[in-house]
Amino acid sequence: MEMPDQIRLQNKKIRMTSQRSTILEVLKSLRTHPTADQVYEIVKKRLPKISIGTVYRNLDMLSRLGLIKKINVGTPQMRFDGRTEEHYHVVCNRCGKVEDVEINDDFDPFRKLHKAISHRTGFEIKALEINMVGICPDCVKRGNLPLED
Amino acid sequence: MEMPDQIRLQNKKIRMTSQRSTILEVLKSLRTHPTADQVYEIVKKRLPKISIGTVYRNLDMLSRLGLIKKINVGTPQMRFDGRTEEHYHVVCNRCGKVEDVEINDDFDPFRKLHKAISHRTGFEIKALEINMVGICPDCVKRGNLPLED
DNA sequence: ATATATGCAAAGACTTTGCTATCGA
DNA sequence: TCGATAGCAAAGTCTTTGCATATAT
Questions:
Q1: Distance from A136 to chain B by nearest Cα, in Å?
Q2: Do B51 and B35 form a contact (C-beta atoms < 8 A)?
Q3: Is A49 within 7 A of strand C by CB distance?
Q4: How distant is C1' of D21 from CA of B44, in Å?
């Protein structure tokens, strides 16, 4: 996975390291939404000496650079997403699964929210953080109980 | 603030204590979205011996009972909201302000999402957690920088 | 009376950071 | 070369929990 040269962040030159590129590759190859610790476990298979602090620092930097997204699904742990296009998530409150909601021109009930909410509140809306929390089809079938009880 | 008698949670009788009722009263009286620590500071003025652990335990219990809501605006700290009707928040990423988005019959761009997303994903959607992140009018005026930089 | 809740302090979970050595451009 | 990054371990922040005491019903 290559990165454009000479990126700067807060006036510092960003350097490509094996740790950073591996973390980016891993996230781009997944369609899941791992926690920092899960990224660490995966990357450690390729770079056994990597430390969790490096993982956190790189996840933070990559998301500041806009190469990945840091997402929040209502749990204490942040999750990371290799998809950077605007999209939304459904979260199962029984098994914890997080799935993307695919949107396209025929199906984008979110886009119009920007304007409506800006007008309503006077905020300049930059991002919608939308989690739809419910029960995934598998958990419905199995009658699983909510996680939190 | 009174609580109905003989509530049970997980087969245990819920008891009303001064700590619990004070926390509930405080939250119901605020239109802000305080952190647990902010609730603690406010409640301590009335009950100086209360401990932070009690505040956390009661905030958790009151939200399990549906008397308050625990909300997550994308920051590491949970926030608490005395309004339990379905509503949404705008979050300023410069000053951290969290405001309610008032909805009514003429303005509820969210309600239709339930059905659309259920149909799209196969999830039984129970709740929409929507934070609109942007810049509040004051921060636009003052040219404030984002919090995270 | 007794099960539930409190206060306190310790522990837990997750994340950040200081420091020295190493590495990339 | 030399400034940016890594590894390590310690510290930080927020939240939960074990235990003895107090309290609501």
A1: 4
A2: no
A3: no
A4: 21
In A, minimum Cα distance to B78 occurs at A76
* Location of structure tokens 């999830």: B123
Length of chain B as a residue count: 149
Clarify whether residues A58 and A91 are in a common domain.
Answer: no
Q: Are residues A76 and A90 in the same domain?
A: no
* Residue A59 buriedness (CB in 10 A; 0-12 / 13-18 / 19+): buried
User: What pTM did the predictor assign?
Assistant: 0.88
Which residues surround strand D, with CB < 7 Å? Answer: A 12-15, 17, 19-20, 47, 49-54, 57-58, 61, 76; B 15-18, 35-37, 52-53, 56-57, 60, 76-78
Per residue in A26-77, pLDDT (tens digit) is 999 999 999 999 999 999 999 999 999 999 999 999 999 999 999 988 888 9
CA angle at B76 for the pair A68 and B79, rounded to the nearest 5°: 130
- Residue B62's nearest CA partner among B114, B132, B1, B131 is B1
CA–CA min distance A37, chain B (Å): 16
At B59-109, the pLDDT tens digits run 999 999 999 999 988 888 999 999 998 888 898 888 888 999 887 777 777
Residue A117: give its domain's CATH number: 3.30.1490.190
Q: Residue holding tokens 């949970």? A: B78
